[in-house]
Structures are given as C-alpha cells and as structure tokens.
Specification:
Elements (H helix, E strand, L loop, with lengths): L22 H22 L8 H23 L2 H39 L20 H32 L3 H14 L3 H16 L7 H25 L3 H9 L4 H28 L4 H6 L18 H10 L5 H33 L6
Helix pairs in contact: 1-2, 2-3, 3-12, 4-7, 4-9, 4-11, 5-7, 6-7, 7-9, 8-9, 9-12, 11-12
Length: 362
C-alpha cells in the first residue's frame, strides 16, 4: 500500500447517529408553535383579521417536513433523512384525507342532533306539517324500499356477469361486456334517472310518471357496474389450484363455482355489494326525476310518488317555509340519519363477511 493513500473512515448509514425516539412529535409541535407565533404576530400588527388555526396547522406541517429532513440529514445521514421525509409525507397525506371526513361528521352531528333527538322525528311523516315538528319516517321507508329493490335487481345480474367474465368469457362478448361495464361505471347519476324516466314514460305512455320502482331501476343501473367489477376481482383472487382440485375429483364446472369459488370469495363479494349500496343510497338526482317526492307515507313501489332520504334533505333545504330554521334542522337530521344507515350497512357487511368467510385453520 502506498504511503500517500488516504484512509477515510467507513460510515455505515445503518449504524450512524439517530434522533431521539420521540423527536418527530416534538419537532411537529415546535413547528406548529412557530407557525402559530407568526400568525399571532400578524394578528397583533393587524395585518390579519384574526388568528388562523388552519393556516397554523398547514404552514406548521410544512415547516415540520423541512425541519425533520434537515435534522435527520445532519444526524442520521441522507438515506435515513429521505426515509423520514417520505414517512412524514405519507402521514400528512393520511391526516389530510381524514380532515374532510371529520369535518363532515362533526358538522352533521352538531347541526342535526337537536332535530334527530326529537321524539316525533322517527315516528311521523311531513304530512300537514308547515313549521316545527314532523318526521322522516316516510323518507326512511322509501329509501329502504327503493334501495332494497335496486339491490335485488342488480346483485344477481352483476354477480352472474362477473362469473361469466371470470369463468367462461374469453371472446369478443366478454371484451364487449367489460368495455360497457367500464363505461357504465363513469356515467353521471342523473343520466340513470333520465334513462329510467324515459323508459317508463314510453312504456306507460305517461310523461308525468313518478313511482318508487322507477327509482329502483335507476339505482340498479348505477349499482350493476360496481357489483360486476368488485365481484370479478374477488373471483379472480380464488387460486386456480382449488378449481383444478375440484375438476380432478370429477366435479362439474357449475358445481365447482357454486361449492368452491363462490364460498371462497363470499367475503369480498359481500363487501363489494355493500359498497355498491353505499354508492347509490345517497343519490338525489335520479330519484328526484323518477321517484319524485311526497310528504305522505307510501309503501307501494309501483304506485304514486315516494320520498327518499336524499330527496328529503334536498327538499327541506330548498323549499323552506315560514319557520326556515325548522326546515334546515330537519335537513341536517336527515343527513345524519343517512350517514348512520350507511354505517350500519357497512358494519353488517363486515359481520356477514366474517361469518361466511372460509376458515382455513384446523
């Protein structure tokens, strides 16, 4: 070895210095304090009208991202600094995605809880009510009937289409079905309402037709592509070895699908169905066009107008009477009811999926 060779110390980024365990939390809090101090100074100097909480959080988070990267680079090295920066970005994106959800829930609960807790809200309709009082019973009934019928129509069609695409379809017909399902996934909901309205107006020769079954057809048009795509993906996840084992035992294909493929993927299929219901249960435009709205109870899907929860919320907000606050309170309470129904449906889907999912243990 030459005497002129310079021996440099070997630095291992995996064993280099490390920041304290809770340093990211303290750096984040310090960044928020710094941003808050800046906005407080702006408020005192009358540059800003008031203290900006949202601005403090946003700019404080930006300061945190810069600070955590620089400190980590000085102490831990470039490799660990990049890792901490990406971790902070992912965590920030996750928190940002939760902000609208939390804001919606808090706002809806705050504004809708007073009317929601009224005793008459769930046991009466809006018939002959022009001010305070009244309830949402007719809208809940209409929502359950219309959505239930739409589910009965769309789930068999969507599931059978998914089985065909996964187990049988290989030619042009399968490619055409896949193409049209993709197109239907992106159509606006009002187009489905116009389709149902035009269909029944032509069938019954009645340009003013309004009834609940038409709303079910409109919702089914929106649900079918979601059921098809979600069920198709779940069926594709079933290992081919299970199918081949059944074929080797002499089991016909249709029985293999019934006894092997569907039970294996039932948890994912149920989840997809519940997602499709959650997708359409809050639709307003198609139901407003074909189902209409009414202040009275209606249990018959095939006769007269039928009120649903989304249309109830819309109608209460845009058609306010003398006591406008009572209408706004009922609109918020109806929105809260709709959120709770969707939450119950999702919990039921998880429970059903857990009960019927295949058990692989002994």
């Amino acid at each position: 070895m030459s005497t002129d060779t310079i021996i440099r110390p070997i630095t291992n980024s995996l064993t280099a210095g490390k920041l304290p365990k809770r340093s990211p939390l303290w750096i984040l809090l310090a960044s928020w304090v710094v941003a808050g101090a800046v906005f407080l100074v702006l408020q005192v100097t009358e540059v800003a009208d008031g203290f900006n909480v949202i601005g403090t959080i946003v700019f404080g988070t930006v300061i945190y991202l810069i600070a955590i990267y620089l400190l980590s680079r000085m102490v831990e090295g470039a490799r660990q600094a990049k890792d901490r920066l990406m971790t902070a970005l992912v965590a920030s994106a996750f928190i940002i995605s939760l902000v609208p959800l939390g804001s919606i829930i808090i706002t809806t609960v705050t504004n809708g809880l007073p009317a929601f807790l009224t005793p008459s809200f769930f046991n009466s309709s809006m018939r002959n009510v022009v001010g305070e009082g009244g309830g949402v019973l007719h809208a809940i009934t209409g929502t359950l009937l219309v959505t239930g019928m739409a589910t009965l129509i769309s789930v068999p069609i969507g599931l059978l289409s998914a089985i065909y695409l996964t187990e049988y379809g290989t030619g042009r017909l399968a490619r055409a079905i896949t193409f049209f399902v993709d197109v239907m996934t992106g159509i606006p909901s009002i187009v489905a309402g116009l389709f149902a309205f035009a269909l029944f107006a032509l069938l019954f020769n009645d340009p003013g037709i309004r009834f609940g079954f038409g709303g079910s057809i409109a919702l089914a048009v929106l649900m079918i592509p979601v059921v098809v795509r979600s069920s198709e993906e779940m069926l594709k996840l079933v290992p081919n070895e299970l199918r081949e084992a059944a074929y080797a035992l002499g089991v016909p294909k249709w029985l293999t699908i019934m006894k092997v493929v569907l039970p294996t993927s039932v948890a994912g299929i149920v989840t997809g169905v519940m997602l499709s219901i959650a997708r359409v249960i809050g639709e307003t435009a198609p139901l407003l066009i074909i189902a209409g709205f009414t202040a009275s109870m209606n249990y018959d899907l095939f006769s007269e107008r039928m009120m649903t929860l989304p249309v109830f919320v819309y109608n209460q907000y845009v058609s306010q009477g003398v006591d406008s606050q009572a209408y706004v309170d009922r609109a918020w309470a109806g929105a809260l009811t709709l959120i709770l129904i969707v939450m119950v449906l999702n919990l039921a889907a998880r429970l059903i999926a857990r009960i019927f999912s295949p058990k692989f243990g002994r």
